[in-house]
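Teaching assistant's notes for section 4

Start the section by putting this record on the projector. Ask students to predict, before seeing the second block, whether TAF1A polymerase will look compact or extended. Collect guesses on the board.
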Amino acid sequence: SSCEHKTNFKKSKEVCLSYIQDAMLQKQWKRAAEFLTFYIESLEKDFSTEYMGPSEIIWRIGTEILCHHSHSSMKEFNSFIEQMKTLGVKRYLKVCLEHAFHLLCNGLIDEAYQNLSLAESWRFGEQTAIQDKEMKLIQAYRGLLDYYNWSKQKTILLEHGQDGFEDLSVEQEMHSCFRKAAVNLKEIIKIPGVWDLFVKCYVDLLEFYGDHNEARQVLNEYAYNSKFPANPNAHVYLYQFLKRHGESKKSLVSVLKILHDIVPSHELMIDFNTMLQKSKKRKKRRLGLEVIFAALDYAGWKENVKAWSCLARQVKQIVISEKHLDWIKQEWNSRKDWWPAFHFSRYLAKRNWQENESLSYEKALVAGILLGKDCRYFKYVSHQGCKAQVKRFRILKKFVHKHNPVYLRISG
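Reveal the predicted structure now:
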């Protein structure tokens, strides 16, 4: 019966798809291709009137298999993609975009550009308006390739100077690429979203032609417009731009403060801490201590010599002056239960000493202040340093022993 046929077809389709999935997960691309062939054939033989919507499944799975299959060629991939473009107008632009990505991954830049240009000229009644966002993506990626060509022409021009007819033609080509890239890149970054690469390229174009005000406006909009998702990179790009153009430390600190709130483990926290420590304002120096403590809460910073050096220097200054010991105490109270095992175990003391003497020195100073002269990390490193007759470790040992009462005050 018709009902029984539909039930059996649905079951067989689901089983076949599960076999394809299993083969793909095990990277058995030949086996996956065979099952996909069976799946397509079964769809062709199906006489039920129910719409099964298989085209996107075939496109997604087929693309993945052809990207990894050992006997797949670019010719076969192109042929498959062209067939996929005809399966449904709703997915036409998405397929075109994926085709361009695949061509780019294989170094076929001119072919990718040509495909994006053809897709940009595509029109299909109301679907054109419905797929407005996909069309903007097509235009944006074509803008990226225009930027790439602009960058190549710029390199040629800078390497060979600006003499002669040939250089004039290069300069004209370069300006042509600039105009086309700028138009498309400017459009895409107006839409709320994460457009890091597009923003960087557009700002590079603007900076090269001296339009610094426009570049600053673009970066400010990208970082501070509430319609855009929170994005650490937006603040990084703004900071780098301001730094390149010699902006005031106040502006730089303002940007890095927001970055710290979003990603306290970001690598720029070293720069942030350094700027704060140089400030004459007590509030900023206090924030600097908070910033470096927060960064060292993360495993990726455990062996960062610069970070430990920043913390050691500030802690040492506070201990010597005996001012603001409460700053250290406040930071340490929330960490004293887990930092000793996380940073200052005997195992880490041995490893750090063997691998990086400078790291072990900075950490030993911090450990001696925070945990006292009986701390296992400090005792091991200072003993090894003195045994190796390294002068600074003898000085370190004396310093920690002299200021051991500070540990008692910090620990409460």
